[in-house]
Amino acid sequence: MRSVEQDFAYQPGFLSPVQSQTLLKALLQAPIWNQPSIQVFGHWHPIPRLQAWMGDVHYRYAGLTLPPTPWHPQVQQLREHLSTHLQQPFNSVLLNLYRSGQDKMGWHADDEPELDRTAAIASISLGAMRAFHLRHQGHSRSHSKIWLEDGSLLIMRPGSQQHWQHALPASRRCQAPRINLTFRHINICPPHHKDLP
Ligand SMILES: O=C(O)CCC(=O)C(=O)O
Ligand SMILES: [Mn+2]
Q: pLDDT digit of tens for each residue in the chain (197 aa)?
């Protein structure tokens, strides 16, 4: 069985406290946030957090189509920093704003066919520390968590989404906001799986 360490690498302090606070403030004030509804078992629900998207390409996710959208200048700078650090290109980023500990994200894997499986997903956290839970796809008893601190980078390596699901549960103790940015590489001309013979 895969270990967490094989598929995930955690780097605290990837951004300095000043860098992360500056970016958190800028993004909290930016007019980028939406609260779309997604379909879960046939019913539509507003997502329990706010979301934004920036990317060079379309992305289909949980029944939503996110169109190409201009990059916020500070997020663009971070994309360049990450591309240099990880030696791989990123053409999109999904941002989540957890306004308080009540906002959350349920169990899922970022395994849409559009996502380039040979690329890592780079996850940057700003603001309140929250627990990122992991469970192995085939072994639900294997469960771990990583505390994602302000300014940290979590690298989800190629293959991680095929082996693990992740979630960010609500936290009663946490009142402060948190923003997470997941930089992704999406295939430009995805073969649509429904079109395959
Ligand atoms: O907020 C987080 O740390 C996780 C976000 C996430 O899983 C996602 O955007 O797909
Ligand atoms: Mn995810």
A: 789 999 999 999 999 999 999 999 999 999 999 999 988 888 999 999 999 999 998 887 777 788 888 999 999 999 999 999 999 999 999 999 999 999 999 999 999 888 999 999 999 999 999 999 999 988 667 789 999 999 999 999 999 999 999 999 999 999 999 999 999 999 875 445 554 55
- For residue 182, the CA-to-ligand 1 centroid distance in Å is 7
Distance between CA 136 and CA 101 in Å, rounded? 25
**Residue minimizing CA distance to atom 3 of ligand 1:** 180
| Centroid of ligand 1 to alpha carbon of 124 (angstroms) | 9
Show the ligand 1 pocket: residues with CB < 6 angstroms: 94, 96, 105, 110, 123, 132, 148, 166, 168, 180, 182
CA dist list (Å): 4 to 89, 109, 152: 24, 14, 17
Chain Cα centroid distance, residue 18: 22
Give me 18's structure tokens. Answer: 């000043």
Residues for the chain: how many in total?
197
Q: Whose CA is nearest to atom 5 of ligand 1?
A: 180
